[in-house]
Amino acid sequence: MTDIDANKLTIAEIAEGEYRFVGSTPIAGWYRLGHETIYCTKFSMHKKPSFIHRFFMRVMLGWYWEDNLK
Fold first, then answer.
1. Torsion angle, alpha carbons of 30, 35, 36, 41, to 10
2. What is the pTM of this model?
3. CA-CA to 55 of 20 to 30 Å: which in 1, 32, 42, 70?
4. What is the CA 63 to chain-centroid distance, rounded?
């Protein structure tokens, strides 16, 4: 049996009713909702937003950007 990293898989529709797992691009980082690192919700993104975008997301919505350091 092979171990599969679920973070690297995406489901793509090939034809109507047919789906296949395909590799995705690496995750650049994520927005974290909340100050706690243990109990929070994260939304990952494949492209890092600009500084001004990250600044206003933090100021207006309270979402904090974290880089993927892998």
1. -40
2. 0.60
3. 70
4. 13
